[in-house]
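ARCHIVE CARD
CATEGORY: sequence design from structure
SOURCE FIELD: tokenized fold
FIELD CONTENT:
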């Protein structure tokens, strides 16, 4: 398999309620690449039936590991553009064309900006990245990358950045950036950030490491 222009990477953990619909919407625009991160339900079977390329983790390795796997597969499939999409139904697949159009207009990195964010830590992280890099919502799970952005770094994540490392490092490097605002749909199931305390810890940790790597270590 190969020669796809657009790869849509969809990390999934026990998303049998929504995965078929998400894949069906995504495959209109490219090849859906579902990374089943140790699901115990029928996520893999439903994704395959809906037309996705599926890569499975034998156990749960986490959101960032799933994205690492998905980007590696997209590169193997010779995709020119990689778009990340949540599996829980929060992202309308119709938005994918907006992200593709932004890349076609010259952007190397396109970051979604959600209509609502639940946690103070999400607003804080967004304040920092908007000030430093003009990235309004670094924690949005829907982003688009030219494959060269990924290849220049060689991996998506190295420290559990909640999906932010490649975007921030690429913005620091000066890649052409665009933000796309959209309305978040109702989620099915639990947040990928976890419960309130756990989620805030993950987000604040990722932000502090990003600050250290960008503002301190490279000063």
């Amino acid at each position: 398999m190969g020669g796809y222009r657009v790869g849509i990477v969809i990390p999934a953990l026990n998303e049998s309620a929504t995965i078929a619909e998400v894949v069906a919407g995504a495959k209109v625009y490219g090849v859906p690449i579902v990374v089943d991160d140790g699901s115990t339900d029928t996520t893999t079977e439903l994704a395959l039936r809906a037309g996705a390329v599926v890569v499975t983790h034998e156990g749960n390795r986490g959101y960032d590991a799933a994205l690492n796997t998905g980007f590696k597969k997209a590169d193997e499939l010779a995709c020119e553009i990689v778009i990340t999409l949540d599996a829980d139904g929060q992202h309308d697949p119709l938005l994918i064309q907006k992200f593709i159009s932004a890349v076609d207009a010259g952007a190397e990195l396109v970051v979604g900006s959600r209509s609502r964010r639940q946690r103070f830590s999400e607003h804080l992280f967004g304040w920092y990245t908007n000030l430093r890099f003009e990235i309004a919502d670094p924690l949005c799970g829907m982003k688009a990358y030219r494959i060269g952005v990924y290849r220049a770094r060689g991996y998506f994540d190295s420290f559990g950045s909640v999906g932010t490392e490649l975007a921030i490092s690429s913005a620091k490097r000066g890649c052409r950036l665009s933000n796309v605002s959209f309305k978040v749909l109702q989620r099915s199931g639990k947040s990928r950030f976890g419960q309130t305390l756990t989620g805030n810890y993950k987000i604040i940790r990722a932000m502090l490491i990003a600050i250290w790597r960008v503002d301190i270590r490279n000063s």
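CARD ANNOTATION: The helical segments are 19-26, 43-50, 63-76, 96-104, 120-133, 147-153, 165-172, 196-216. The first strand starts at residue 6 and ends at 12.
SHELF: design records, drawer C
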